[in-house]
Amino acid sequence: MENRRTKERGEQMKKKVKSWAIVVEWEHEDGTWNTETITDVDSMTANAVDEFLTEYENYYEPLPQKIVDDSNDDSNKEKMLQKIADRNGF
Length: 90
Description:
The chain is α+β, with helices and mostly antiparallel strands and 90 residues long. The chain is 33% helix and 13% strand. The chain has a two-stranded antiparallel ribbon.
């Protein structure tokens, strides 16, 4: 059976965000914790997240591994995330 994600070895399909939510991990004073998924946000937050995810999709468009392999280098990712956060006032 052919893998839906690849037609030929090394070929990758572009990812596209279908939906998103904010996941928060809460830690309580007694040391317990729980997670909460937030899907209802104000338009300013939604616009900032949409813009971030659009840039993230474009920045991390898959390239053939033989040309670029930065999987062990998070410095570019961190710089890109900081640039977006700075621009949006976070």
